[in-house]
Amino acid sequence: MLPSSPIFASLVIIGWLLFTPSAWRRYVASIDPNLSPNFALAHLTKQHWQQPALWRLLLLGHGLTSLWVSLIVIGCLWLLDTPNEGILLATCYALPLSLVGGILGSLMVSVAFGIITGMIGGILLSLPIGIAGEILFSMAKNLAIAIMLIVNFSDSSVTTSENSLALLTVWLGIFTASLGGSIMYSTTKTAYNHPAYRQMGSIMIGVVVSSVVVFLIVGFTALAAHSVTVLIKNGILFTLAYDTLINGVFGLSIAFIWFLPTWHWQSALLLGFAASFLLGLFTLLKNQFFVFLPLQMPLYGFHGGIENAFLYLLLFAFPYVLAERIANPWAGIIAGIFGSGGVFIAFALLIQEDTLWLLLLLMLLAILLGLSFVWWRPLLFYPFQSAWNLLLYHAEEKRLDTQTSLLSWHTAFWDEHQHLPLFGLEAYLVMVTERNPLVGKLAIEYLSNSSQNWAAQEAQIELDARRLQSYHNVTTISQAHRHLAAGELSSPVSALLRSFSRISRDVEAGLAQESSYNQRLALDAIEERLDGLLRELTRSSEPYAQRFYPIAAQWRQTVADYVRALGEAVESRQEISNPYIIGIPLTEHQEIFVGRSDISARIERLLLDIRCPPLLLYGQRRTGKTSLLNNLGKLLPWQIIPLFVDLQGPASLAKDYAGFLYNISRAMLTSAKRHRELQLPPLSREQLNTDPVTRFDEWLDEIEQNLESQQTLLLTLDEFSALEHIFNKGFLDEASVLGMFRHLIQHRPRIKILLSGSHTIDEFERWASYLINVQTVHISYLQVKEALQLIEHPVKDFALRYAPNASQRVVTITHCHPALIQLLCAEIVTLKNKQDIIKRRFAQVTDVEAAIPDALQHGRFFFADIANNQVTKTGLSLLRFLAQQGEGATVSRADLLKYSQLAEPEGEIALTHLLQRELIEPVGKNKYCFQVELIRRWFI
Predict the structure, then answer these.
(1) pTM > 0.85
(2) Looking at per-residue confidence, does 358 or 803 come out higher?
(3) Does the pLDDT at position 68 exceed 80?
(4) pLDDT tens, 427-447?
(5) What are the residue ranges of helices labelled H in 680-783?
(6) Which of 266, 498, 634, 908 has the fewest CB atoms inside 10 Å of its own CB, making it the most exposed?
(7) Where are the alpha helices (DSSP H) in 470-515?
(8) Pairing of strands 842-843, 801-802
């Protein structure tokens, strides 16, 4: 908003128009949010005129600015050693020219145009008056007389220097109109959607029609003036009559121009009468006091300034209003410039009739310079702004951290047209941000959307680099990803910063592992990645490589030191490393993954068959489906490329087809790179915005074209049933998505599909029409041999040994369930590490039994999921009844149905559901028991 000081506020308004157009737009919006930034006074309603903010803008923008113009003219002429008479004349000419011309511009063109042309025109057009010491021409009067009497000014008493000054004034008038139009257009930032032919047509109409009207007006004035000459011989009366005629023509012209945009003839006539009266008043005063020498010069200047203000603005406004009505303000600006420029050229030719081509060239130069003002102005101001910014920077260095920053005075924050790089800004932003993070963050966010966004990026990158360099232990490294920002910017270094962010996240995940062994395993992999990053930075020619190489080296050393310290601590305590991973799927990098050779062999056999239909991998939760999918890359031959997509991830959160397909493609790209070091063609989010399904299909074409002849893609969609969530929300259509997968199955033989889910096979039947001839692959418990390997030799050099009956007890109590083996064995290792070193490395049956309570406690979410989400109330009641019978106890179907107190069909359905969920199993004839002893103990 505007400052309270009127003097400062008037300068701020000029600054808005020249340097900070967004502030002008905000102020106009404060008057009325629906008011256009290029509004004219003709556009305003009664409600607008009741706004104090509007009156303040007009009073300061026209009234006080006109006083500034007069002071500037006085100062310039004084520096040029102009005589006092010339300074007085120019000052008296400048004040009304700026005030009246600005108001007329605001009335008929726009307030922004009126304020700028009033200020710049008042200065530029007044200086030649002061240098010449007289009004070089009263254009309306002299043009009419010249046409009427066919006067050749070159033969008159006007000197060559005065002719040159007059031509300079013409040139400056054209330049002022062009510059005002350029500033108005750049300030308002209005988007014009009219076609080019309409804009060009409107310009031609505006120029031609205005030229004809001006010609008629001048002809009428000349004819009337001739009549006055014939009828009136007295000099004073002739002058008064002639001035009255000119004033009337001006008044009618203003009334007509006002009538075009408003269609209010009453206000148009009133405005025309007011203009004629004002001109007539100063004409009368000038003639009345012409003989009174002290007032002669001021009145002469005032009259000339008012008259020429009317002429300049009327010549511009008439073609502007015509073209603006037909097309848009930009077309109006061009029409106004050429329309008024043509009249100025006609007058100039009357002064020097033999210089047509030179005048046309000068006119074109004036127009080009004015219209391109916003392009060359930054270059003109750049040296001064650079010096100013340097002084600010040095002043900021000397300020205390508690003092308010001077950053807001930097050119980048008040000159929105300065597109040249303001060197040193990035260092200034870094210094301010380190002193006051909030101020620096707001400044960087602001500059990110400006022409100085390069400085925001450079500063953010340097701040991120310094922050990364300050992390000296794995704990702080694990939190680094929460503070990085430059990875979100569009910059060549973004990929590098995202690498640091991912490493930080992986360190955090590694430290979250409960056992020292798993921490070391995860951090070893991170150390290898940092080694790879260092090699990339060594080979890179990017300018940021040298800056970030020491950071990567420091992180690698920090991680390596931590891993070594972990190993030393474990060795010193003779602690058994706990390799078991609870609650998350195993990846291909984790040695603990065992078995599943029979399932992977079946999948391989089916995939190598050219007629292979889609595969469905199903089984109970936590039986290792996702772990198997993660490890398919090393279980299957090289020609099969696993593309793992977790449908419980971002894909199921998508709200449209573009987001859904983009997240699937991103997972496919990552998986191909991870499992086979294969770089698939990229697919951006923007490419999917127009027609996502078609573009995704074309992308699959590109992938198939890049495959080798023997290669096959295996698209594995984990937790396929998660799509129900996105279907139920209505974001995607079930038939369309499943139909797309069906089309892929039928028409892309080199892309195989493997679905995975925790539903039973019966629950997948609702999608049977889409999954044509699906082949099922059931995953359940480990084989005994595989289970014993997981218990006794989960990793190489495992320090814990089991008594044969102890490991067999684990097999019995877990029924070879992979997740429960890891749960129980992890608790056994924890229990053994608490014992004396003599007993620590040998597990017996008593240790297995002692670890069961903690296993039930730490695995409570696994067991609670069974009770809450996988069985019905009747099934839950049956499980609790069966659990109370003891380990290995069997109960007949009749007793179970009797206990459930349900009719035969309902009871049979409950039993069948428990069998499908693999929670109970049949024993002999019509008897049932718990399948997994550890689960039975939970239900007790």
Answers:
(1) no
(2) 803
(3) yes
(4) 999 999 999 989 998 999 899
(5) 692-706, 723-728, 734-747
(6) 266
(7) 474-478, 494-511
(8) parallel
Q: What is the fold of 784-858? A: Helicase, Ruva Protein; domain 3 (1.10.8)
Alpha carbon of residue 273 to chain centroid: 53
Q: Which two tokens stand for residue 658?
A: 């573009």
Q: At what angle do helices 453-469 and 494-511 cross, to 10 degrees?
A: 30
Phi, psi of 75 (to 5 degrees): -65, -45
Q: How far apart are CA 675 and CA 671, in angstroms?
A: 6
pLDDT higher for 279 or 913? 913
Confidence class for position 129, pLDDT limits 50, 70, 90: confident
Would you place residue 172 in the very low, low, confident or very high pLDDT band (cuts 50, 70, 90)?
confident
* The CATH homologous superfamily of the domain defined by 597-766: P-loop containing nucleotide triphosphate hydrolases (3.40.50.300)
577 CB-near residues (< 8 Å, 6+ apart): 515, 516, 517, 520, 570, 795, 798, 799
Comparing C-alpha atoms, which of 894, 863, 880 is closest to residue 930? Answer: 880
pLDDT, residue 490, reads 56
Q: Which CATH architecture has domain 865-939?
A: Orthogonal Bundle (1.10)
For helices 692-706 and 734-747, the axis angle rounded to 10 degrees is 20
- Give the pLDDT confidence score for residue 201 in this predicted structure: 56
Q: What is the pLDDT of residue 150?
A: 38
For 757, phi then psi, to 5°, come to: -165, 165
Q: Are 431 and 401 a contacting pair, CB within 8 Å? A: no
- With a CB cutoff of 8 Å and minimum separation 6, the contacts of 553 are 534
Burial 520-559 (b: 16+ CB within 10 A, else e): bbbbeebbebbeebbeebeeeeeebbebbbebbebbbebb
Is the per-residue pLDDT at 410 higher than 90?
yes
Question: Encoding tokens for residue 461?
Answer: 């990158």
pLDDT at 151 > cutoff 60: no
Given a contact cutoff of 8 angstroms between Cβ atoms, the answer to whether 652 and 645 are in contact is no
Structure tokens at 323: 């073209």
